[in-house]
Write a sequence for this structure.
């Protein structure tokens, strides 16, 4: 029998026992719905984490520090296996020469110094301690500034700042939106290095100290408080978690990288460099940030940099583990979701076995008229498949509604708790198609036993059946 | 065992020889036995029988004589425990179940005592079923269904369900279904058994018309009945069965 005839007969048979078949199909729908609802939440959560990680620039960034700056007794950061230590180059200072060498590595888009410091942000009468970072112009296109209100720095030397949404909330007056900070001035108070004059001049000269770069530390420096005003040109969205900036390289305030460098803020490691000076060429850096051409290149760059004698660090392993975690998490959600479908499959078996009993004579007649065992088997398979398809389609719709309801309930609950509700629900197309195909496959598998039983019916016996 | 109008032949008769000899059906020492507990029941016991092409054979016998079992074996609905059956020269025992199904669909038309129309389908859908199974193109089906229903006088009842038809109409519908694939052999198992005598007569007239139509080729008919009068009036030959064996044969025409 041709497929069109089979499907037509199957659909007709299903329509005849409409209540029973509808209930069975509803069972499949509920199974698929639970699968879709749970997986859509799992996928939504994974996307939420992926978004946060991407926004923090975790996927394509390698942070490089000088290995010599790690004191004895402290883990060597980036050195994954102490047994590899023998193969590594001796520690080197992180200077201009090293920066050029790193920039020449394959798949490296750019190498920027990391300028990151703690400062006090003040907008009278409010003040707040904040982590400030220098931001390279290239970061404009990264995910860090997704959803930015206002604009990026007008020039690399502009005395402007972009403020993280959660910090902006704290710096504005009560009841005002974070974006009201745009166009306002913020005063930053920070610790600045100022060079000490040579010892011979220290006794005689009354000249004020000069700000110095890290290559001038041989003479030592003093740390003085300094202040500077910045115009707020951008406000980033408040974080999904509502808990302020998360992840590596995320800060409360961003300044143009060149401007941040010129501030000569005391960096972590400055004191160690003074106490143990090493010969270096040109500018010395506390840390460099490498941007890779793609996340897949990060591991190779990290390995190369480590072999050059520096400590390299990326969160690629962390994100890989995160993905593994979500794969397992989704699998468990899928298993729990599938339990309902497994129960529904028993319903299909029951319905079809009942149908065989009821339609025994009909099967006998079909065989007497020339239906082969294969035709009868395919007819029952088609009935199971149609139930699976209809149940799958309705199940996806039902799952969508349930997932949406859970999302809305979560949003309402979190809003009442004062937390900005994240989007934890996503129904990608592969989930829709996969759930429908899965429902059809489960239904067909459930149909194997009834279909075989129907096909094996003895037509003479079946025709005698009253 | 009586061998009437039957000769025992060697088992290696070729298919073409069987049809060339003018036999539509040839049964050779056919037995069918069932086991019920420890007892072996021989429903059909070494029957040998030839049915000529275009012949109308009536199988007569009391209940349990084995006539319906023999008809099922000829139809290919059942397989013999021993012996062989040739239909239009083809050995049914050598056929796969798929080939047997095709044999039932294309070579044989079957009419049952209890009509066996599917109650959930309309009359035309019932008649269309063998065409679906034969994978006849959809476009050809309506005309063939209509032709078969016109032949049995039910062209106006196509949309009715079996429950909306009288017993005689249902049996006429069943005959239309049996004929729609234009089989060479029509098997009828007590076709008038569930009908009153007047309607039974009408059905028998219809079957006789199929056997020897006013125009066009006739068909070979094997009819199981327990009504001797009907058999004598319409059949060319009567074979009487008792206890699974042929007990008597009468050639009438």
């Amino acid at each position: 029998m041709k497929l069109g005839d089979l499907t037509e007969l199957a659909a007709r048979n299903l329509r005849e026992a409409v209540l029973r078949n509808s209930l069975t199909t509803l069972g499949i729908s509920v199974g698929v719905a639970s699968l879709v609802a749970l997986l859509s939440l799992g996928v939504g959560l994974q996307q939420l984490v992926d978004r946060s990680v991407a926004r923090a620039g975790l996927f394509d960034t390698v942070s490089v520090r000088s290995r010599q700056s790690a004191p004895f007794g402290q883990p060597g950061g980036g050195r994954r296996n102490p047994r590899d230590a023998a193969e590594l180059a001796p520690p080197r200072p992180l200077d201009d020469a090293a920066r050029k060498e790193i920039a020449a590595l394959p798949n490296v888009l750019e190498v920027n110094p990391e300028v990151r410091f703690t400062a006090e942000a003040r907008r009278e009468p409010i003040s707040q301690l904040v982590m400030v970072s220098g931001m390279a112009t290239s970061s404009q296109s990264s995910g860090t500034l997704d959803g930015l209100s206002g604009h990026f720095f007008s020039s690399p030397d502009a005395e402007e700042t972009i403020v993280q949404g959660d910090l902006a909330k704290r710096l504005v007056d009560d009841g005002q939106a974070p974006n009201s900070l745009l166009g306002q001035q913020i005063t930053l108070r920070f610790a600045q290095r100022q060079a000490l004059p040579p010892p011979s001049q220290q006794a005689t000269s009354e000249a004020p100290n000069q700000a110095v770069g890290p290559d001038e530390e041989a003479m030592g420096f003093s740390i003085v408080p300094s202040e500077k005003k910045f115009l707020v040109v951008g406000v980033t969205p408040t974080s999904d978690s509502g808990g302020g900036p998360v992840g590596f390289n995320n800060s409360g305030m961003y300044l143009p990288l060149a401007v941040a460098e010129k501030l000569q803020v005391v960096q972590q490691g400055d004191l160690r460099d003074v106490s143990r000076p090493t010969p270096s060429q040109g500018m010395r850096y506390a840390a460099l940030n490498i941007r890779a051409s793609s996340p897949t290149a990060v591991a190779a760059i990290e390995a190369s940099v480590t072999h050059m004698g520096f400590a390299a660090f990326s969160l690629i392993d962390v994100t890989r583990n995160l993905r593994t975690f979500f794969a397992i998490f989704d699998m468990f959600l899928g298993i729990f979701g599938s339990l309902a479908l497994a129960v529904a499959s028993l319903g299909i078996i029951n319905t079809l076995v009942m149908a065989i009993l009821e339609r025994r004579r009909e099967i006998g007649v079909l065989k007497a008229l020339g239906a082969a065992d294969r035709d009868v088997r395919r007819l029952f398979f088609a009935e199971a498949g149609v139930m699976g398809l209809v149940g799958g389609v309705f199940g996806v719709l039902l799952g969508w509604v349930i997932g949406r309801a859970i999302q809305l309930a979560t949003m309402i609950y979190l809003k009442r708790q004062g937390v900005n509700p994240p989007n934890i629900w996503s129904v990608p197309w592969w989930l829709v198609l996969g759930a429908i195909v899965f429902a059809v496959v489960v239904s067909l598998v459930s149909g194997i036993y009834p279909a075989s039983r129907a096909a094996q019916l003895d037509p003479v016996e079946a025709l005698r059946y009253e | 065992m009586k061998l009437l109008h039957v000769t025992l032949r060697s088992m290696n008769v070729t298919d073409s020889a069987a049809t060339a000899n003018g036999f539509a059906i040839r049964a050779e020492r056919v037995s069918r036995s069932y086991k019920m507990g420890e007892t072996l029941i021989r429903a059909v016991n070494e029957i040998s029988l030839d049915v000529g092409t275009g012949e109308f054979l009536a199988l007569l016998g009391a209940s349990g004589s084995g006539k319906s079992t023999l008809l099922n074996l000829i139809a290919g609905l059942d397989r013999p425990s021993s012996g062989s059956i040739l239909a239009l020269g083809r050995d049914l025992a050598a056929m796969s179940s798929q080939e047997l199904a095709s044999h039932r669909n294309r070579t044989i038309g079957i009419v049952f005592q209890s009509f066996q129309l599917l109650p959930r389908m309309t009359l035309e859908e019932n008649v269309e079923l063998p065409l679906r199974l034969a994978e006849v193109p959809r476009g050809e089906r309506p005309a063939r269904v209509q032709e078969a229903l016109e032949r049995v006088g039910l062209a106006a009842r196509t949309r009715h369900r079996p429950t909306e038809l009288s017993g005689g109409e249902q049996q006429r519908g069943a005959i239309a279904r049996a004929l729609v694939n234009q089989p060479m052999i029509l098997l009828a198992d007590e076709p008038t058994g569930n009908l009153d005598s007047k309607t039974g007569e009408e059905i028998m007239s219809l079957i006789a018309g199929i056997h020897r139509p006013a125009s066009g080729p006739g068909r070979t008919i094997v009819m199981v009945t327990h009504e001797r009068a009907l058999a004598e009036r319409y059949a060319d030959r009567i074979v009487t069965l008792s206890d699974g064996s042929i007990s008597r044969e009468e050639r009438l025409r």
